[in-house]
Amino acid sequence: MKRFLFFLSLWLFLSFTATSTAKTLTIVVNGFKENKGKLMIGIYNSDATFMKKTFKGYAAEVIDTSLEFSVELPEGEYAISVYHDANDNNKLDTGVFGIPSEAYGFSNNAKGYVGAPSYEKAKFTLTTDNLVVRINLID
Fold it and tell me: Residue 125: helix, strand or coil by DSSP?
């Protein structure tokens, strides 16, 4: 019985500790040309995975010229990429030379030269609750 209580106490302590470091991040995206489709959101937590494998991925319905989306994340360093999947086909459509034909954007409104910006340009640190990251879509 003592062993059970010990493990229960440990589990409760670890659960409380894990949730107490979670912070709310609000992503505000502006510049939608059409009120249809969805916004695809990719959150990355390292340079090695940036634009390769998301830490967290979300989709949100676009119903206005701006969109606000909130998530709970542990404290840490992140970068965000978004694109407006206006035709709702679950992919970023591209044209000649792989140039996106759908609106897209990155945290810090970072821009790349012939491709996505670097993780260094797009990264931010989440240490406070209710951090707001604003992204302006690029056509």
Answer: strand
Task: Summarize pLDDT for 115-135 with one digit per residue, the tens.
Answer: 899 999 999 999 999 999 999
C-beta atoms surrounding 27 within 10 Å: 22
Residue 78, SS3 per DSSP: strand
Among 126, 105, 112, 114, residue whose Cα is nearest residue 55: 126
Condensed to tens digits (0 to 9), the pLDDT of residues 27-72 reads 999 999 999 999 999 999 999 999 999 999 999 999 999 999 999 9
CATH number of the domain within which 93 lies: 2.60.40
pLDDT for residue 97 is more than 60: yes
4: left (phi over 0), alpha (psi -120 to 50) or beta: alpha
Question: How many domains is the chain built from?
Answer: 1
State the Cα–Cα distance between residues 29 and 62, nearest whole angstrom.
Answer: 10
Range of the domain at 85: 23-136
Residues in the chain: 139
Measuring CA to CA, how many Å separate 91 from each of 86, 97, 99? 10, 16, 13
User: Tokens 């640190």 appear where?
Assistant: 125
